[in-house]
Design a protein that fits this description.
Chain B: GO terms for molecular function: ATP binding; metal ion binding; ribosomal S6-glutamic acid ligase activity. Chain B: It comes from Malaciobacter molluscorum LMG 25693. Chain B: Keywords: ATP-binding, Ligase, Nucleotide-binding. The complex is a heterodimer of chains A (511) and B (311). In chain A, a hairpin with a 2-residue loop joins strand 9 and strand 10. Chain A is an alpha+beta fold and 511 residues long. Chain B is α+β, with helices and mostly antiparallel strands. Chain B is built from ten helices and 14 strands. In chain B, the strands form three sheets. In chain B, strands 12-11-10-9-8-13-14 form a seven-stranded antiparallel β-sheet. In chain B, strands 1-7-2-3 form a four-stranded antiparallel β-sheet. In chain B, helix 7 packs across helix 10. The chains are: A alpha+beta (511), B alpha+beta (311). Chains A and B meet through helix 13, helix 17 and helix 18 of A and helix 1, helix 2 and helix 6 of B.
């Protein structure tokens, strides 16, 4: 009884480990449970154009985005024909720098910088400290008065920097703004950028910390767009993002912040008419590759020791190998619960692996054909009175010949699939024929039929288990499922109840 | 189509999984299996324990010795060749008569020397042994079975299978060969199984291929009339096999020789479940009763007495 409990506990632990690992992988590493799950990868490209000045060296630098929570930057890439490329960090901002001593070509030059961004809800990073410098602008008295009256009006209604900024933005976006707001708007908010900068000035007048940001919306098929100006306000160790038209941004998962602070997005020396434009493209990739790509950034130990680290060829081997336990589960189930007679314990698994190579129906036909022909040959060989090993070897050679013959015949008939039969495990087939013929001699054709069809039934079921795309996807991506299979097999190994076949066998005893 | 498993359980019917886990796995120590699985070893140890067995004529271990077999059988009219490690009656060749260079099987089929040699060669190659390992061909004197079974068995040696549980005879049946079973006494090959009352040695009821029958299919003899001679001796012999092998769940196959009385033909560490059908009785009921008294009886006699007065 004690060992029974132990086994129960052991199996449950195995199954639980599997579930926990799977849950972790699905939930935190975003592994997909289904093969056709897809994820979006956003490709953001900055296109810098400029006209070089003759015989002058050129330095172009672009402020690069810093890390952002929930959005993971995957590949950074710059295409820069024949420009020198380097990156540099200045005042907390990373910059890409392209340089060239002499630009001979007078044509417009184009540089690209692109990144892939993927959403990852579990990715967290600190927002970098970037100073916002104040530029003093000469402002006329009436404007200052207007600003003061506006602020005096809003300030008492607010509680902190967050509410204050919200109210301020709301004030400027009213259908009928107050006179003061109107005045400021007309003078200093001709563009979105100016609007943002003015808002920051107003916020700073109240001694709140605020800074400028330039963002991109993650929407498909955007071409030649500029960064959308937004602002961030500081409170209690955190920065809050504001849309200057709509107020506080609650869900920033669709917004990629490219630029922070007052540094210029693009610095260009020795060139004319430089400009930077962005494009955003959505790429749909299988969720698994996305999860793996993310992992190269996050480095989870779980994946570091996974099958994905193997070379492709071995991965393919394991894809097939990992299915064998499923076949074994079918065999155990059919034996312990159903009680089906098979010839050889694991012959059905080998058969079903052969069926995977040949496809089911041709495989079954081939199996029946080869075994039947083999049985005839074997019955002739038994007259020759050979030693066992020699006889099995003879059967083996005959099996190879039969298979070659069938392959050639089917080729002539245009049934190309039958040629893949060569992968059939020949030894297994020879042994099957040998055992079947012994069985025939000793127990009659009936037993051969029972065991043969039992083996075939189990192997067909195992074939379906092993070719089920969902199951094969799960076993390869969640190899820990094998632990659960092990747990179930161990549980089945302690099943001491009646087999289905026994319910039939002993039926007469309870009627 | 199917029986209700709860009803089966109520009747105490032992299933295959239950047998494997809770009886064979629990009471039969793996290291004792070769004693039982290897008929040559069984024979040798049985002689040491004074348990009567059919006479060993000799054995052949290597292919080159095959021609020696004539030497073993020269004085015998009938003999049996069996693989030492065969199971389920596989590879047993029974010769009832020798006429010149011809060997005659119970069903009248004549075999020549080469047929016998081929059979021995197959045995040595491991064709009939568990897992196909090399085997030994054992030559045994043919049992001249008791007249009590005249008309009950067709072309073969009838034997008594006694299931010994923890040293107590628990269930018994007579296995009668038929034309279907080719002189062999294995139920799945078509032999008739007759349940035997442990206390009296008389027939209870009979089955063939799992179906109840009243008369022997070949000889038409009424199976109810079957009464086994030397019954107490048979129970004693079977129970002694427990002492010899230390197997808590054991099937002892016993034949009755006209001159020598009961002989242990072979032992089985994995006796089948058909005996329940032949007895129309669930084995678990008996086993549970034995579990209650196990340890109270120390000698073989006490155990046999308990069984014959309680079952």
């Amino acid at each position: 009884m004690k060992s029974k409990n132990q086994i129960l506990l052991f199996s449950i632990v195995l199954i639980l480990i599997t579930l926990v690992l799977m849950f972790y992988k699905v939930k935190y590493l975003n592994f997909p449970l289904f093969a056709d799950d897809t994820t979006n990868i956003w490709n953001i490209q900055a296109k810098i154009t400029f006209e070089p000045k003759e015989n002058e060296s050129a330095i172009i630098s672009l402020a690069l985005p810093s890390k952002q929570s929930k959005l993971l930057i995957l590949n950074e890439e710059s295409t820069s024909a024949d420009y020198g490329y380097s990156t540099n960090k200045l005042h907390g901002v990373k910059k890409a720098i392209w340089s060239k001593r002499e630009v001979k070509d007078k044509k417009e030059q184009v540089l690209y910088y692109s990144i892939d961004v993927i959403k990852d809800n579990y990715y967290k990073t600190k927002i970098p400290k970037i100073k916002q410098e104040n530029e003093n602008v000469e402002v006329s008295k009436p404007i200052i008065q207007a600003a003061n009256s506006l602020l005096n009006n809003i300030y008492p209604k607010s509680a902190d920097s967050i509410t204050f900024t919200s109210l301020l933005i709301k004030e400027f976006n009213k259908k009928e703004p107050s006179q003061a707001a109107n005045m400021i708007q007309n003078n200093f908010m001709k563009t979105q950028k100016e609007k943002r900068d003015t808002l920051i000035k107003l916020i700073k007048r109240m001694k709140y910390k605020a800074r400028t940001v330039g963002v991109l919306y993650l929407k498909d098929k955007q071409r030649n767009v500029n960064l959308t100006p937004m602002l961030e306000v500081y409170k209690d160790g955190k920065w809050y993002l504001y849309d200057i038209d709509k107020g506080l941004v609650g869900n920033s998962s669709n917004i990629f912040i490219w630029q922070r602070g007052t540094q210029f997005l693009l610095d260009a020396e020795g060139v004319n008419n430089s400009s930077v434009k962005f494009s955003v493209i959505k790429n749909i990739v299988p969720a698994r590759s996305a999860a793996l790509m993310k992992d190269t950034k996050n480095q989870s130990a779980l994946l570091d020791f996974s099958l994905f680290t193997l070379p492709n060829a071995s991965q393919n081997t394991f894809k097939l190998l990992l299915l064998v336990p499923l076949g074994a589960l079918v065999v155990v189930f059919m034996r312990v619960i159903v009680g089906l007679k098979t010839s050889g314990t694991f012959m059905p698994i080998l058969l079903s692996m052969a069926f995977i190579e040949t496809h089911l129906v041709p495989g079954i036909l081939m199996f029946i054909l080869v075994v039947t022909m083999g049985l005839f040959v074997r019955s002739y060989l038994s007259h020759l009175n050979l030693l066992l090993v020699a006889r099995i070897s003879s059967v083996l050679i005959v099996v190879v010949a039969i298979m070659a013959f069938v392959a050639i015949l089917s080729q002539k008939l245009g049934l190309s699939y039958a040629t893949s039969i060569t992968f059939f495990p020949i030894i297994i087939l020879s042994w099957t024929i040998e055992r079947m013929s012994i069985l025939w001699e000793e127990e009659g054709a009936k037993e051969v039929f029972i065991q043969g069809s039992g083996s075939l039934t189990v192997s067909i079921l195992a074939y379906f288990a092993m070719t089920n795309s969902f199951l094969s996807f799960i076993t390869f991506n969640f190899p820990e499922v094998l632990l659960a299979v092990l747990g179930v097999i161990i549980l089945l190994g302690r099943y001491s109840g009646y087999r289905l076949s026994e319910l039939y066998r002993f039926k007469s005893m309870v009627d | 189509m199917f029986a209700n498993p709860f009803k089966l359980k109520e009747r105490g019917i032992l299933g295959m999984n239950n047998r494997n886990i809770n009886f064979i796995g629990k009471y039969n120590n793996r290291k004792n299996f070769p004693l039982v699985d290897n008929k040559l070893k069984t024979k040798q140890i049985a002689q040491k324990h004074n348990i009567a067995v059919p006479e060993l004529l000799g054995f052949i271990e290597y292919q080159v010795q095959i021609n020696n077999f004539k030497h073993y059988i020269k004085n015998e009219n009938g003999f049996v060749i069996k693989p030492a490690q065969g199971s389920g009656g596989k590879g047993i060749l029974v010769i009832t008569k020798t006429v010149g260079n011809k060997f005659i099987k119970p069903n009248g089929v004549e075999l020549g020397y080469s047929d016998i040699k081929r059979h021995i060669s197959n045995i040595l190659s491991g064709l009939y042994s568990l897992g196909g390992k090399n085997d030994i061909a054992v030559f045994e004197k043919l049992v001249d079975f008791d007249d009590a079974f005249n008309g009950f068995s067709y072309e073969g040696v009838p034997d008594v299978r006694v299931i010994v549980y923890r040293g107590y005879p628990a269930l018994a049946m007579m296995r009668l060969s038929t034309s279907n079973s080719d002189g062999k006494a294995n139920l799945h090959q078509g032999a008739v199984g007759v349940g035997i009352d442990i206390s009296t040695g008389k027939a209870l009821n009979a089955v063939q291929f799992g179906d109840p029958i009243k008369i022997h299919p070949d000889t038409k003899k009424d199976l109810k009339e079957l009464k086994i001679p030397y019954w107490k001796d048979i129970l004693y012999l079977a129970a002694k096999c427990y002492e010899m092998t230390d197997m808590g769940y054991l099937g002892a196959d016993i034949v009755i020789d006209k001159h020598l009385g009961p002989l242990v033909l072979e032992l089985n560490a994995r006796p089948g479940l058909a005996i329940q059908i032949a007895n129309d009785l669930g084995a678990l009921n008996r086993f549970n009763e034995i579990d209650k008294v196990a340890g109270k009886h120390l000698t073989v006699e006490e155990k046999v007495n308990y069984s014959s007065s309680n079952f």
